[in-house]
Amino acid sequence: MLDLASPAHAPRSHRAGRHAPRRAHAAPDEPAVRPRLAVLIPAHNEQERISAAIQGLWDQTRPPDLIIVVADNCTDDTAAIAVEHGAQVFHTEGNQHKKAGALNQAIAWVLPHLDDRDLLLVQDADTVLDPWFTETALSTFNRKVGAVGGVFYGEQGGGLIGLLQRMEFHRFAWELERSGGKAQVLTGTGTMFRAHVLREVRAARRSGQIGGGGGYYSLASLTEDDEMTKAVKTLGYRTMSPAGCAVVTEVMPSLPKLWHQRLRWQRGALENLRDYGWTKVTARYFVQQFLMGFGALSFLAYLIWMTTYTSLYGWPGFSPFWTAIGLIFVVEKTVSVRRAGPLAVLLAALMIPEMLYDLFQHAVYFTSLWGLVRRSEEKWVAT
Predict the structure, then answer these.
(1) Would you say 97 and 68 are in contact if contact means Cβ atoms under 8 Å apart?
(2) pLDDT tens digit sequence for 124-151
């Protein structure tokens, strides 16, 4: 059914027809054609969201040449809805390795039909891309850039917990923009790869240069996207997340779901560093984790000191110096979330809600670190 020979397809016409897999090349007397773009959307029972994800791709200023929904052990109507919206469907076989295993099967199926300069976009099924995503990503590639990831923002809803997550995502996007779009993590919400880079990643795994099995994505990592970032960088490529590659993704609607999501992210990040060890690529990540832990301990020590002092001696009184430091902190917090709307700015100015949210994040960090030290097995919990 795979067909990448023709130009970009219209959403609801002849793309539903069946074609035998084949590799397309321009005739010798034809001019060079633009790189082709294929999209993989790994999906497990995503019937409520898959149509929006696919439509977001057809609405791109540079639409993909092919959209493939990777139906992984689906028991709902995900596959049927995907076909209705003009996508092809790849069904995994015997996959027991969640998203990474599903992607490895699908990439192994589609990559032989792509030339080295062609592109493969991997997008989550609960995500909608900004219409400029693919065009911006394509313009970002050069010989040194191996992958271009999205800048994610949270969808509406979720009450106070959802708003705090949206504020966190806006602040992360703000920091990305200030760094010139240098991606620290290739987000699973949407990342575009050069085909030859994925081939190099698999070859490096098979040669033992990097771990994670013999496929494209690591089967040994809880956070395959974080590990893929380190793999691409280890091979000498840059990873970018330009501002134009915006995506909107779901937020966790409850504390238990948020806890399991962040615990998997944090534990996976720590395990990836353990597996890679100290290298010129991972050195910065080790420092970031150390600073995260130091900041968490400092914050906890401050709260304990303030609570103890106030209980014994009353409120310490007005200090011009520490008041000025606090005001600078509040200004930074509010400015960094101004694009999230006035309610986010107000919540940041109040400080207390975000302080509690920070304590939640610190609990995730230390729980993950303790689990890593104990070498306890972290179970995958669907969120």
Answers:
(1) no
(2) 999 999 999 999 999 999 999 999 999 9
